[in-house]
TrEMBL record, chains A, B, C, D, E, F:
Domain CbbQ/NirQ/NorQ C-terminal stretches: 182-266
Record's protein name: CbbQ/NirQ/NorQ/GpvN family protein
InterPro entries, A to Z: ATPase_dyneun-rel_AAA (IPR011704), CbbQ/NirQ/NorQ/GpvN (IPR050764), CbbQ_C (IPR013615), P-loop_NTPase (IPR027417)
Keyword ATP-binding in annotation: yes
Domain ATPase dynein-related AAA: 35-169
Assigned protein family: Belongs to the CbbQ/NirQ/NorQ/GpvN family.
UniProt keywords, alphabetically: ATP-binding, Nucleotide-binding
Species this protein is from: Nocardia fusca
Source species, domain of life: Bacteria
Keyword ATP-binding belongs to the record: yes
Length: 270, 270, 270, 270, 270, 270
């Protein structure tokens, strides 16, 4: 079962602050109809970036989250029972292909391999989607663009993007934003005062810069926003940081204690 | 097949004694509509805590126990045969989403990965559940909240909560309560006299504090209550402890004997 | 497919000779509605013990043998074809829940994990069985009790009873009975003279007391009864012991020879 | 899919020459309704022994060959399509249970574990077969007897007969017959002259007595009969031995050559 | 899905040149109705040998190629949809059994184990095929013969022919033919001049005799014929050898270069 | 689900520049009806080569991309639901067989093994496709030719082309074209000026010639064309190379930095 969300171009501009030339590369790829591969850690803003580009380019966006049980039928569609009859229901990829939207396949590497192969004819000059169950081929409407993402930080011997897939994509690497931008993002998304946002971002960078860190992932912008939201919900800053940042990063008592002491040292004594 | 239980807010207040600031964190998360992750050992009271919070917040509670064969269809729903016709039956998660209840997914890490992905759109600003089999998306009713739990003590290379899931949740760590609270809990739940409860809690803490313990899990509050219940059912204290605590903790003859000697030393000679 | 047997309380009292306080513990658990976990080696009388307790307590008994392909549907029920129509057929667990009987799940650890989870709501204060395929929940009738068993002697890395399951159960450990009781059991079950029973039990204990024994399991009471039955069927004692005890315990020629010599030394020269 | 063969008691007595007390043990077990486990190498005559006993006891014999894909449905039965309708077709075990025949499950250890469990209630005092798909239980007709076999020479970590299964059976070990009996068997079965049979049996025993033999299995009585049949079909003895014995025992060129030289030395120069 | 081909006895005699006494052994086995096991490397002529014997004996030949997904249903048959109705379609083995043909199961070791078991009753004195899905047993028509093959050169821990299967078969080992015969075969099959065939066979034997060869398989007669066919199609000899022999044997640049140099040294400078 | 594309011979000649004698070998194989195996790295032009040969030979081309879930039904066809009825739909291989086209199975090694077996009767003198589900055999129309490809650079213990498959095919090895040809290809395909193409090819060869390269695959012609397309889409050369070449080749920060420095050194300062 695929987890999908389709959105028409929003009236409100999605909030995204570019850090490098990611928007220029995306525009050039879009102009040439080339598929894009986004690389970056959890919670650094990949989804927001795609939302912002879809808005700027005026195209519908369809998001699909990959997982290890996902097959090509989850993308392309299947016959479903509706009122006693079997009717064909387009999958999210097929809907994007027909409507000329942007189809964003998040962490597609997790999916079963037949899904990566189904996107090949969409990712080269053919720009068409074979729908074997219907015995037809759907040409991509103008404006259709494929975007996929993965997190290079996950170590996996079993799940690797195939070279023959990867070399079809223009690659853009995203990371956490620099402090001045991250402060603005946290303050805005969590609806907290600038000094709270400042404290959270200072802590986030202190954790990211820990030498010889035993953490699998660093504290993402997303966890900083979560901590800010708890503050906005009435919790004090230290309890919010403990719940949204410290306890989220590790289960090891020693690491949790060390992160707690770091938070005590960095956060204002309020 | 999912194991689910749905309960309307009870007239009687569920018995739960808070140990730290877990209730404040839960309230702030609930106020902001943020999902919660509970961490803690078997039998420490995670379920009771959620029941108490659901009661305080006046919301229905739906509990689902995860297991390694559980798929997203167990959460979302499926077509079933009823009287010769196929009818759609909402899964427990969908019911919680429609009614604005709290959905508590116990040990969700055990489930197949497609279940963790299906909860992502419910665990961020989208707050919606895609039901692919019906071709629709169900927006979460006001009051819907997602709570998941897992036991960090289980060592598992294969089953880990994904970072991209984990960083969406506010995390609360629960442990065994301090002696004065645990005595009250055991006496009340097992309906035994205070001195019996006192003896059981003293034993429980003696076992938990064993140095270099070879036990996978310590004696939980739940096993102490079980021992108390046997006493309330007419068994003498030592036989009750042997059946509900000692034999439950290990199959190794040496460890069973050592635990028995510890129980002899700690329990009153009655 | 589940292997089940349901029996109404028998007119004749099943033959079981208690060795320790197992009956008292079972009665107290039964009085409090607590589930019971039986631990012990193959053929030591676990099933007989449950039969005797069911008889004493006046409740129907349903026995289910676990195996590695058993799923929760084997316990709960499924839709079957009968005369061209699909009809729901309760599984053995559901039948026990409805009738207030004792459901004995033998070696449930072998079954797939979803079966252990399906019994959780029956093994705590909820006492109810969710039947997802029917979209209903069946409350346990008064008198329903869950009994499970496993053999701690089997070494298995893959199959372990989960702590969160185990700590819900009152545990009773059973072993082989002492000689005077075992003699009575063998004589009665195999319908042989006391001196034959005596010889068999003497041999059984000689094998169990072998130092540094390479056998995976010792000679159980069951194998001694089997040998006695062969004698009752006309075979001489030594041939009966060779067929029912020696050859049943090992395929290794050296061990078979050693066990044969031990039998020659212990058994009367007839 | 199960491979089965059912035979009414034959008019002609099947040819079997007893070597030890295997017939007495079988008769005593049969008299008491006890199940039998046959142990022995490939091609030593296990099937013939069962055929002979079935004939002597005047009971129908049903043979089922186990394999790693065999499930309990292959033994018990299933619904099949016949002329557009689904009808229940008894499996071979169910047929034997209904007719009071001997059911011989050859190498049942290979089958999936649910098959060994399905035979438990038939292998103890219950003597009944639960047929879950029909929702019924079939009591064993008088005369029904279960016989299983396996080859202890196969080393398998994965496939072992469970102790709780094994200790339900009376065990009989069979081996290759002594030379004087094996000569008679080969001469009769292959329809060759005594001196040919003598040469083949001499060779067979020379191979079996090879010290430090690298062969997984020795040359069985079956392969000696096969070689005899080729001679009866017109091939010379040495070519027959090469095709039916030497090439059947190994693919290793060195071993094949050594066995060939052994054959040259042992066989008459004809 | 099984890959099968059925051929009536051809008018034209298939071209096969016997190397040893393989034809005599096959005739004796055929005369006695005994099954045959062919051993030998890829492309040495196993299929041709069976075709030639089937022609000589005047029987239809059905060939089935084994693979790791092949099940007994692929051999025996299944119900298929035809014009909206389900009709039974005999598998290739069943067709051979009914028509009294030779059924050649190529590399049957690759198939799932239930296929090897299904052939047991056809490979001994019973000579019958149980068709469980139809609930019937098909007796083998006179003339039916089972032939299986495998390649001992493939090292496989997982896939081994079971001893209880193997010892039912008369075994014939085939290898590459001696040069004078192989030259004739290549010239005839590829329709090339004798000197081309001579050059190819010389090269083939030079490769087969490489000491310490790192090749998994040597250059088979089949690859020499393929090279000859390219020459007959207009390619020069060296390019043909490079494409059909050198590049077919290895992907390792060093080995490819070494084989190329060997070819340059052995082949006429044309 | 198979990913297929069928194309009638194009009016426009597909652009392909031969590097060695690959076209001659292909023509000879085609003339003789022999199957072809293409070996070479990702993005070196295997598909283009087949397109060009199909055009030159005037035959329709059907392309199928292999993946690890692909089964023989994906190639041969299956019954599908259309308007409530089940109709047979030919798979891509069957369509090619009927129409006498070229069927190009890209990376067929990835597919399940039953797919490689299904092509055997098409890859030798039989030239026919058994369609078991229909119970028929389809003879290959004149002109039918099988072409398969794989990438020897992928190290895989699990997935190897079987020798018995491989030795049926004429093998052609393709590599990256020499600079003067690659420049022409890049300029033409990406529609960039010769100096841009020259810079890209120079960089590509510098990367390919890195000593002790840690890259799994080198920069293919395809990635150079991709970079060129970004330039044609308005991006500057260095950003285009970073997105299409550097970030596509590695996720390792050190390698990405080293490749970036190499690009800075090789590319014109623009």
């Amino acid at each position: 079962m695929a987890t999908t969300a389709m959105s028409r171009p929003e009236a409100r501009t999605p909030f995204y602050r570019a850090v490098g030339d990611e928007a220029e590369v995306f525009r050039a790829a879009s102009c040439q109809g080339l598929p894009v591969l986004l690389k970056g850690p959890t919670g650094c803003g990949k989804t927001r970036f795609v939302e912002a580009m879809a808005h700027e380019l005026g195209r519908p966006l369809i998001t699909v989250a990959g997982h290890e049980d996902m097959t090509s039928a989850d993308l392309v569609g299947r016959f479903l029972l509706k009122g006693g009859e079997t009717v064909w229901v387009d999958g999210p990829l097929t809907r994007a292909v027909r409507t000329g939207g942007i189809c964003y396949l998040d962490e597609i590497v997790e999916a079963r391999q037949d899904t990566t192969v189904v996107i090949h004819p969409l990712a080269d000059h053919r720009r068409e989607l074979p729908v074997d169950r219907l015995g037809t081929t759907v040409p991509a409407a103008p404006g259709f663009q494929l975007v996929i993402s993965y997190n290079p930080g996950y170590q996996s011997v079993l799940k690797n993007i195939k070279e023959s897939t990867r070399q079809r994509f223009v690659a853009i690497e995203l990371g956490f934003p620099p402090p001045e931008i991250e402060r603005e993002v946290v303050a805005r998304e969590a609806a907290v005062a600038p000094e709270i946002a400042n404290a959270l971002v200072t802590l986030g960078n202190a954790i990211r810069n820990l030498e010889g860190s035993p953490l699998r992932e660093a504290s993402s912008t997303r966890t900083l926003i979560l901590a800010g939201s708890l503050v906005a919900g009435g919790l004090n800053l230290r309890a919010a940081v403990r719940a949204a940042v410290v306890q989220a990063l590790s289960d090891d008592p020693d690491i949790v204690r060390a992160l707690g002491e770091l938070a005590d040292a960095v956060l204002p004594s309020s």
